[in-house]
Amino acid sequence: MDPHLLRTYVTVARLASFSAAARELGYTQSAVSQHIAALEQDLGAPLLTRRPVTPTAAGERLLEHVGPLLLRLDAARADVARMAAAPAHGLTLAATPTALGPGILGALPAAGVTLRVLTRDEIPAAVATGTADLGLVDGLAAPSDPLRLPDVAPLTTHGVAEEPVSVLLPAGHPLAGRTGLRLGDLADARWLDAPDAALPLAQLRTAGGGGAFRPSVRYEGTDLRTLTALTAAGHGLTLLPRSTATGAAGTVAVPLTAPRVVHRTELLHGGAPSGAAAELVRRMVDGG
Amino acid sequence: MDPHLLRTYVTVARLASFSAAARELGYTQSAVSQHIAALEQDLGAPLLTRRPVTPTAAGERLLEHVGPLLLRLDAARADVARMAAAPAHGLTLAATPTALGPGILGALPAAGVTLRVLTRDEIPAAVATGTADLGLVDGLAAPSDPLRLPDVAPLTTHGVAEEPVSVLLPAGHPLAGRTGLRLGDLADARWLDAPDAALPLAQLRTAGGGGAFRPSVRYEGTDLRTLTALTAAGHGLTLLPRSTATGAAGTVAVPLTAPRVVHRTELLHGGAPSGAAAELVRRMVDGG
DNA sequence: ACGGTCGATAAGCGTTGCTGATGGAGTGGG
DNA sequence: CCCACTCCATCAGCAACGCTTATCGACCGT
């Protein structure tokens, strides 16, 4: 169970080819073949079918483990290296688009920060592996409940903001005049499925809402502007934190009253934030 | 970052001795020394101070990673091996004491089951590494919310039971006559700290309650009988699921009305439960 | 039928990683 | 105060591992 063997295993599985994996990893085809053979002998079960190269049932199970495993390994290496390396000057902050509300943006220093917009799942990984110094993740949660984050590594989290959630409707929508909406009122509505830009509907199901949603258009970008435009054009409703929902052209933001969930933003960092990062953490946590 | 190196690193750190670790691992002292040297060179930072042998700051960070890492590695190996191995006849079920309520016990088959009582943290690990075929974990959660489990491996969870939570008071307690109690009413009470037997108070804080608790006696066993006896003797209050709280001699169980949390039990299993385990899963999930 | 590609296997060889021995450093006892 | 003991680091030697090169059988398209 050498990490090297696991790494070649995942590349072989991904490329569905021993030779291609060898090329990508800088090995010989023979070496890759021996790697896989060694793994299969070690685990006592065939992992791949040859010709075509496809994971077996056991191989599929292994694949589910290896990703997080290698991630954690990288995280450990990065975490230790961070303590030895000289503190870098630049500070990179990974965040989801909806986490960057006005309150957060106001707390940023005037210069020296690199913002990197990532998926919710990518942010803990980026912080753990040192790709980013700090992370901002947001999501839906019961009031004062922490978010459920994948624990790829021992990360420290601080809640930095909580605000109400709004439903974004096109201006002419029959419910646009309401002062508040229950999710039950919207059982038959069509929702935009935009996991990287809006708040993911799937979180609502775990956070207490029930029932199945009917997604219409799926939007895989991270631009809030086009997202609100899609809603304005009638392609579906969107769930957004109130501050980012209000004021979008052609839309109306109505507070969500039930289930009682809030949009929560959390700041994430590894063990020992260096100078500039530590200062930013202090400012954000104290401020919020 | 060979797993072997990591394994010797943790043993050295645990035993605070190169030679002792070598003895335990079946290596020479020289080999252990070289392992640590290799790790330190690979990571670019000293991990241990010698004489006395103590983790450095970087070493401490590494230690936090290595435990889960090796656990996941074992889990992956066990998971794959499980698919190749012949299905065992015996079925072992790991559970917390409070998870074994009457409803659960009734669903067990008449014979062929080994029950193993473990800590909440140990159960996911046991299921992941194949030490147990199935796991039953319980805890406090908002109604219909899933529990927060450490994700040591991709495990499947099914909610199997939810029931109200009761506060266990000694029979003569001033609040014993109440029909319901708010946590606020008990702000000044003394609580038994029994993380392995009762419901851990710490979970309440994340589940919505606030404030600090004043633990009195700490009980590290898993026997509910002595736990209720401790409460009856006035050593502190205990939080228990209603069905296990009622009827204990010398105590009164009063429902907890606020915060609105329930005692939730979840069934855990790995990817491919074998015959007997699969049947038990089906029965429990359908029944609940 | 035949070149081309793919993965498995054998042989050769450099490197790794172990053992055993030795040395310097700190420690406790006589 | 010195000696014996323990601890970890280091060195030399050797076996085993892991890579490459080379070759083979199987499959595919032409």
TrEMBL record, chains A, B:
Keyword DNA-binding: yes
Keyword entries, A-Z: DNA-binding, Transcription, Transcription regulation
Molecular functions (GO terms): DNA binding; DNA-binding transcription factor activity
Superkingdom of origin: Bacteria
Any one GO CC term of the record: protein-DNA complex
Domain HTH lysR-type: from-to ranges: 1-56
Family classification: Belongs to the LysR transcriptional regulatory family.
Protein name per UniProt: LysR family transcriptional regulator
